[in-house]
Amino acid sequence: MASKTKARAGERPVKGKGGRRPPVRVKRASDLPILPIAVLAVLVLLVIAMIAYIAYNNRPAPLPATVAGIPCDQLEHTQVHYHVALQIMYQGTVLSIPANIGISGDPTSPTCYYWLHVHPANNNVIHIESPATDTFTLGQFIAIWNAWAKTSGSPAVALNATQVATFKLTSDEKLVTYVDLQDGKGAQVYAGDPSGIVLRAHEVITLEITPPAAATPPAFTFASGL
Q1: What is each CA distance from 133 to 7, 136, 196, 212, in whole angstroms?
Q2: pTM value surpassing 0.90
Q3: Pick the residue with more confidence: 46 or 137?
Q4: N or C: which terminus of the chain has fewer CB atoms within 10 Å of its end residue's CB?
């Protein structure tokens, strides 16, 4: 008779006492590899620092306190307030100049306004808002536009024989300037340096890049209240 201590045919021998499985060993925090975790933490901190550095160096630069003799004040002035229209024509089409030129900071809560600036609600209209009567020129507005463009990463702006706003003139292109003083004479060709044009109430300045050349620049109608 076969011994009872031998396992029956086809049955696996039971490990451990009483047929119980050995207890599962739970890993403790002290058992985790410290070096890889430390290296990962350092890498995460380096990535965060790099992102912060890039964001800091690419933040918009503040506008200069004064451009072309015109300061950027915290509030808009009402002592002197009038409007000038500026039309830039390229290939026969009047383009829209950017909104918020001369306004620093978030458009919904600006930090300052130059005395010459553009509001989004009034397309192609320069607002002249000064604390005292003074003479302002188109060249001063172009300088403010250029300073504003630099802070937003936009192309440089100029007004001369080779560039009109952001447009670089080719060898077969030239600038023709018109000024309409709204005195019944209509738009007149301005032969001098357009930067020296004095800004006057309800004046319409048209900078036309030719060819093609328009017989007369398109009329401009100021919105009610301007």
Answers
A1: 114, 10, 18, 39
A2: no
A3: 137
A4: N
Helices assigned H by DSSP within 15-137: 34-57
Instruction: Give, as one character, the DSSP assignment of residue 179.
Output: E
Q: Is residue 14 situated within a structural domain?
A: no
At 36-80, the pLDDT tens digits run 777 777 777 777 766 655 544 454 566 889 999 999 998 899 999
CA distance 72 to 102: 8
> Residue 87: what pLDDT?
98
Q: Is the pLDDT of residue 7 over 60?
A: no
Specify the 3-state DSSP secondary structure of 144: helix
Asked whether residue 222 is domain-assigned, the answer is: no
Phi, psi of 155 (to 5 degrees): -60, 150
With contact defined as beta carbons under 8 Å apart, do 68 and 143 qualify? yes
Q: What is the DSSP code string of 190-224?
A: E-S-GGGPBP-TT-EEEEEEESS--SSPPP--PPT
Structure confidence by residue, pLDDT tens digits, 214-226: 888 999 999 999 9
> Is residue 25 one of the residues assigned to a domain?
no
Question: Would you say residue 116 lies in a domain?
Answer: yes
Three-state DSSP class for residue 90: strand
- Domain residues for 146? 66-210
Q: Are 193 and 163 in contact (CB under 8 A)?
A: no
Q: Which residues pair with 82 in a beta bridge?
A: 128
Strand order in the sheet with 163-165: 158-159, 163-165, 167-168
